[in-house]
């Protein structure tokens, strides 16, 4: 029992070994090394990613960023009082809605494609859920 506790304490106290990686430009090409390879050597983080990867989540976030930028641009236009080709608030709102609906349609197509092309059952089910959610979003936001 004491030996187990001692071994566990030792394992906990030992830091995890982490390799250092440096990025340099040598003769116009990018080089990576475990030692600084020049005056312009820059240490880069090579910590492995944790968690699971969900491509639909990345696409959704990208769509959210595009939507936010569009809203900011519309707000800027409205606050400046400028009339961009006589586009009123309702026209700008409709343009925003059209963009959002197009993004939702692309998300749905992507999720359906992934559901057809994934191999693992878990990934197929997740892609089908994403497609179903996109279909629901289309109904609620684009009717």
Commentary on this structure:
The radius of gyration is 25 Å and the shape is extended. The protein has a three-stranded antiparallel sheet with strand order 2-1-3, with no helix packed on it. Helix 2 (55-80) runs antiparallel to helix 3 (89-117) and helix 3 runs antiparallel to helix 4. The protein has a domain at 101-143. It has helices at 2-13, 55-80, 89-117, 121-141, and strands at residues 21-26, 29-33, 42-44. It has four helices and three strands, in the order H-E-E-E-H-H-H. The protein is 62% helix and 10% strand. With 143 residues, the chain is mainly alpha-helical. The model has no long low-confidence stretch (mean pLDDT 78).
Keywords:
143 residues, mainly alpha, three-stranded antiparallel β-sheet
Summed up:
Helix 2 runs antiparallel to helix 3 (about 90-115) and helix 3 (about 90-115) packs antiparallel against helix 4 (about 120-140). By secondary structure, the chain is mainly α.
